[in-house]
């Protein structure tokens, strides 16, 4: 029997340029380690998630997740091109890859917002340009 939750939706934003999950690397001693940039970003996402959970236990049943990665509009672009990007007429097809951004977010939410990522039954992720780079995340208990 799972715990009763008062929350059915958790939504929050993580400021800054979205960061992709970095593959584990082999150390000189033969072990594996997660790159520092990935570890820092996952810890930041986890921190924002914990605040949004407000002391509640992680969801125990099926969840659906919406991830929106807002990439910074390049400063070198013309005013017209920036406006097109802001309106969604130009989409970011540059690094980082959306699947790797999603992987980093989901790893950070595991055991914080939901018990295990096997609970994810719906996932929608998108990359867009914005004047305010950030990653917005919504997790809905079904």
What's the layout of helices and strands?
Elements: E1 9-15, E2 25-26, E3 32-33, H1 36-53, E4 63-72, H2 79-86, H3 98-109, E5 120-130, E6 134-141
Parallel strand pairs: 4-5
Antiparallel strand pairs: 1-6, 2-3, 4-6
Coarse morphology: globular
Arithmetic mean of pLDDT? 91
The CATH architecture category equals 2-Layer Sandwich
Q: Please tally the β strands and state the result.
A: 6
Structure in words:
The protein is an alpha+beta fold and 142 residues long. It has one domain: Holliday junction resolvase RusA (60s Ribosomal Protein L30, Chain: A, 2-Layer Sandwich), CATH 3.30.1330.70. It has 3 helices and 6 strands. It has helices at residues 36-53, 79-86, 98-109, and strands at 9-15, 25-26, 32-33, 63-72, 120-130, 134-141. The strands form 2 sheets. It has a 4-stranded mixed sheet with strand order 1-6-4-5, with helices on one face. Strands 2-3 form a two-stranded antiparallel sheet. It is globular, with a radius of gyration of 17 Å. The mean pLDDT is 91.
Name its key features.
142 residues, alpha+beta, 60s Ribosomal Protein L30, Chain: A, 4-stranded mixed sheet, two-stranded antiparallel ribbon, 6 strands
Quick structural gist:
By secondary structure, the protein is α+β, with helices and mostly antiparallel strands.
């Amino acid at each position: 029997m799972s715990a009763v939750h008062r929350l059915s939706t958790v939504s929050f934003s993580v400021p800054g340029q979205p960061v992709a999950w970095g593959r584990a690397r082999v150390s000189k001693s033969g072990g594996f380690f997660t790159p520092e940039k990935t570890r820092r970003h996952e810890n930041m996402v986890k921190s924002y998630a914990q605040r949004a959970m407000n002391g509640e236990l992680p969801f125990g049943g099926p969840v659906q997740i919406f991830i929106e990665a807002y990439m910074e509009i390049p400063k070198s672009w013309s005013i017209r091109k920036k406006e097109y990007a802001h309106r969604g007429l130009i989409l970011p097809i540059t690094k980082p890859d959306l699947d790797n951004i999603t992987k980093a977010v989901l790893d950070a939410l595991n055991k914080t917002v939901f018990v295990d990522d096997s609970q994810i039954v719906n996932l929608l992720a998108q990359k867009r340009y914005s004047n305010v780079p950030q990653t917005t995340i919504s997790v809905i208990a079904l």
